[in-house]
Design brief:
Length: 372
């Protein structure tokens, strides 16, 4: 009768000396992990209590942050290496997975839950008011104006970036000056939207008639005898002037992704379409657009998320005045200026709920493209 051996019987049995070595390694790693966590906590207490910004504090923060994370991985890996092979292979992935999840939970999930909790209370979070803050969010006149403006940003801002980005990508790929053209269009991406807003404030700068016009827009129209205009207070067109700032700063992002997608379209497909008698326009809309449809959807949803949570452009250029307020600026005004924590938290949760479906859809599209 043939006796079968299991996988457990085939595993080498560690010698007593090897077992003692692994036990010592486990204790050393556990001690090092405890010491590292203690030092990280002491560094956090020191940096939190530091009242002045100095070079020494900056160096300590760099060493504490980068070195501390490295020490955590080294000591954690030492503990894992001392485990039996069966457990070692199963525990090691969590060493790289759990820290990231822990940071997300600490800095994203917990604040979100706290904000959700505060949204059911009054302005100083001392009295439970139920859904009153949410009812006010959808009935207050200023909030309704903010929702309207966000929809304008969503449709016009997203459409402007996507259409211009795709058009420039197609034209630049056929130009002899492709590199220069793309560099010029992409250059605003190197500037934050706050910096871009400051630049465009000078573009829209207004001075009364008869005075020197430092704003480019008014300098141009006054050269043709047209009176200067206060562009940022000209309702409701001032929202469009603000959207131009985002289009100027974000078109380069769309152009780069579309250009990469266009270069991935097989040449034999377009050549076959042209042989069959298709025009350039027909080839573009019936062959190229369906082929890069995934990229178009990803870029569109990404820019749409940015328009839904827009804040910096509006805050820097108008402060949300003159009919330009959006949900982001309204949240800032209620939470930080008016100190109405309950109502401000409700606005933040409404904005989070509005953005979540777009984010989920974007992630699904990336997953279909094997982006993960």
């Amino acid at each position: 009768m043939i006796q079968q051996t299991s996988e457990a019987d085939k595993r080498p049995v560690p010698s007593p000396a090897a077992g003692a070595l692994l036990t010592g390694q486990f204790l050393v790693g556990l001690l090092g992990l405890a010491v590292t966590l203690g030092l990280l906590w002491l560094g956090f207490i020191y940096l939190r209590g530091a009242r002045e910004t100095s070079v020494l504090n900056a160096v300590i923060a760099i060493v504490w942050g980068v070195g501390g994370v490295g020490a955590l991985f080294v000591t954690g890996n030492t503990v894992i290496e001392s485990l039996p092979p069966y457990w070692r292979d199963r525990v090691r992935p969590f060493l790289f997975f759990l820290p990231g999840v822990g940071i997300l939970f600490l800095f994203l999930m917990i604040p979100t839950l706290i904000t959700l909790y505060q949204s059911f209370f009054n302005n100083d979070t001392t009295e439970f008011v139920g859904l009153n803050n949410y009812i006010a969010t959808f009935t207050d006149r200023s909030m309704l104006e903010s929702f309207r403006n966000n929809l304008i940003w969503l449709f016009l801002g997203t459409a402007g970036c996507v259409v211009l980005g795709l058009l420039i990508a197609v034209l630049a790929d056929r130009s002899r000056f492709e590199v220069v053209a793309k560099a010029i269009i992409f250059l605003p991406m190197a500037i934050s939207l706050v910096g871009a807003s400051v630049i465009w404030r000078f573009m829209y700068a207004y001075a009364p008639p008869g005075q020197p016009q430092i704003g480019l827009q008014n300098a141009i129209i006054t050269a043709f005898g047209i009176p200067p205009q206060s562009w940022l207070t000209l309702q409701p067109w001032n929202n469009l002037f603000l959207i131009l700032v985002m289009i100027w700063g974000s078109t380069g992002f769309a152009m780069v992704l579309f250009s990469a997608a266009l270069k991935g379209v097989p040449a034999d497909i377009t050549e076959a379409a042209q042989v069959d008698g298709a025009t350039e326009v027909q080839t573009f809309f019936q062959i190229i657009i369906p082929y890069i449809q995934g990229t178009i959807l990803t870029v569109t949803t990404t820019i749409a998320i940015g328009t839904l949570k827009i804040f910096d452009v509006v805050y820097v250029m108008t402060g949300g005045q003159y009919g330009t307020s959006v949900v982001g600026t309204e949240f800032y005004r209620q939470f930080f200026t008016n100190r109405n924590f309950g109502y401000g938290s409700a606005i933040a949760i409404v904005l989070f709920i509005a953005i979540s479906p777009v984010i989920v859809y974007n992630l699904r599209q990336l997953q279909k493209q094997e982006g993960f």
